[in-house]
Design goal:
The protein is built from ten helices and seven strands. It is of the alpha/beta class and about 280 residues long. Helix 2 links the parallel strand 2 and strand 3. Helix 1 crosses helix 8, helix 3 runs parallel beside helix 4 and helix 4 packs parallel to helix 5. The protein is globular, with a radius of gyration of 20 Å. The structure holds nicotinamide-adenine-dinucleotide (NAD).
Length: about 280
């Protein structure tokens, strides 16, 4: 019960990583206030998760809805201690030489401005509490090409820098700000981004499990609880000296080329050896 007496606000908690995080914080004794655009799922969670769970339909691209979510959380529970700015989607998939300005603006609103406004409107409540912890969802896409669309990846890189700057500005109020960079986590985000129907969704999720198991040293896809545990760490007193940084939670996806960790792959030096030296 690490979070008894604490209030945590989680965006994008109707599905995937956010849902796993809702479950963890409820298990650990927190009051959880969840904001998501998906009101059907949020309402059904209200019916099943008990009195410590609160839901407010929230579109994180709209600043006034983020303000309303934070105010609602404080009204319902007395204040805010922890915020997980997590809602997101793959967004527009167009290449840089094809994307429209409007699509670019949408991706930034959904993935970057939403995090900035989440921090902006959580901070006054945390100041009243005498401190707090903010955790933002970035991605491995912030570091390398090839994992996500250009607008998505650019926004996620922005989330990392925003995390540092916010940590610097808010330290005086005892508010810590950190980010998590998930790798391949088995959620609906890939199917949703590709516009898949239910049957295609299942096929995509099965394929994701197989692909993820083969592209990184930890031979399995991530699950939402892998990220939830990291959120809990950043939110807890154990991380009291940790701010303005990020943690890759990616099964080693970014550790190096496949030859560096896969014993079946010839290494670069092996490729240099003449036959007589092999
Ligand atoms: N799954 C992965 O492999 C992965 C990897 C890196 C980063 N991420 C990031 O993790 C976060 C969560 O994604 P997920 O994988 O759990 O996906 P998901 O699709 O399972 O969940 C995303 C949630 O965000 C909500 N959402 C979408 N647009 C919204 C909006 N405008 N306002 C409010 N809520 C909205 C959805 O309704 C959904 O509940 C995202 O920020 C995503 O970019 C995911």
């Amino acid at each position: 019960m690490r979070f008894e007496g604490k209030t945590v606000v989680i965006t994008g908690g109707s599905s995937g990583i956010g849902r796993g995080t809702v479950d963890l914080f409820l298990r650990e004794g927190a009051a959880v206030v969840m904001g998501d655009i998906d009101s059907a799922e949020g309402t059904s969670m209200m019916a099943s998760l008990g009195d410590a769970f609160h839901f407010k339909q929230t579109d994180v691209t709209q600043e006034n809805e983020i303000t309303a979510l934070m105010d609602f959380a404080a009204e319902q529970t007395g204040g805010i201690d922890i915020v997980f700015n997590n809602a997101g989607a793959g967004g527009p998939r167009d290449a840089i030489d094809e994307i429209s300005g409007d699509d670019w603006d949408f991706a930034m609103a959904l993935l970057l401005k939403s995090v900035a406004m989440g921090i902006r409107h959580a901070a006054p409540h945390m100041k009243k509490r005498g401190g707090g912890a903010i955790i933002n969802t970035a991605s491995v896409c912030a570091f390398q090409a090839g994992f996500g669309p250009v607008a998505y990846s650019t926004a996620k890189a922005g989330v990392l820098h925003l995390t540092k700057l916010a940590a610097a500005e808010l330290a005086q109020y005892k508010i810590r700000v950190n980010a998590i960079c998930p790798g391949f986590i088995q959620t609906n985000i890939f199917a949703t981004t590709l516009g898949a129907n239910d049957a295609e969704k299942n096929q995509i999720n099965t394929a994701l499990g197989q692909v993820a198991a083969g592209v990184q040293p930890v031979a399995r896809p991530g699950v939402p609880n892998d990220i939830a545990e990291t959120v809990a760490y950043f939110a807890s007193e154990a991380a009291g000296f940790v701010t303005g940084t990020h943690l890759l939670v990616d099964g080693g996806l970014l550790v190096g080329s496949q030859a560096s960790w896969d014993p079946e792959m010839p290494g670069m030096l092996d490729a240099l050896l003449p036959e007589s030296m092999k």
